[in-house]
Amino acid sequence: MFVEPNFALPDFLTKDPNENKLDSLDKILSHDGVVVIFGGTNKGKTFLLLYIYAIFLAKQEDKQFSDIVFYIDALKTALNSKSKIIQALCQVYIDNDLGTSFESKLKQSIHDGNALIIIDNLSSMNEVSKETLLNFMEVFSSCKFITSSSNICELEVYTELSSRKKLNGAGTSIRGIKKEKYSTNYFKMEKFNNDKKYRWSI
Fold first, then answer.
1. What are the angstrom distances between the C-alpha of 77 and each of 42, 52, 81, 87, 119?
2. Residue 17's pLDDT band (boundaries 50, 70, 90)?
């Protein structure tokens, strides 16, 4: 079961009247540009990104291909060149039995701006890889990007992002689940565990 967390502007942005307030999942998904989701350890950043990934995969199963969704965990993948980034994005879809034509269509969706690219653990990247990724985002700025970052270095990450105006960057922070929602979520997860079922519930 998914329970939408509370979103709020990072503290360093609260005094900026021009900052886009991404205080709901719908606003995050509708933002044209790059969204960085900040949060502390075990606040649910990765779970949220995987949930968004699952939503769009479900749409693709229903033949809704307005945006092809891609997911990368930067903590587990080397992203130090444009070609490696594209290879990592496409890898989950590639099946040797399908040949290369499908791969070319995936790459074309990125070039055409018909892609939602989800990148987890942006703040874990070294400076070279992060610079490469930001350059990649600029080249393919017509795509949508949703990323996650630790709140420990949120100012540094946001400053790097906002310095590239072409990216239309915006930031939001996960502030946990409301108390009344949390009890409902716990009950549902307890039921899943008793039934020995582990599944996405969208």
1. 21, 20, 12, 11, 10
2. low
Place of tokens 């350890």: 41
Q: What is the identity of the amino acid at 179?
A: K
Residue 116 burial class via C-beta count within 10 angstroms: exposed 0-12, middle 13-18, buried 19 and up: buried
**Stated pTM of the model:** 0.82
Beta-bridged to residue 150, according to DSSP, are 39
Distances from the Cα of 158 to the Cαs of 48, 138, 168, in angstroms?
A: 19, 15, 11
pLDDT mean across residues, the chain: 82
* CB 123 within 8 Å of CB 153: yes
| Burial of residue 196 (number of CB atoms within 10 Å: 0-12, 13-18, 19+) | exposed
- Annotate 94-159 with three-state secondary structure: CCHHHCCHHHHHHHHHHHCCCEEEEEECHHHCCHHHHHHHHHHHHHCCCCEEEEEEEHHHHHHHHH
One-letter amino acid at 186 equals Y
Is there a contact between 93 and 140 (Cβ–Cβ < 8 Å)? no
Q: Which of 162, 166, 125 is nearest to 143 (CA)?
A: 166
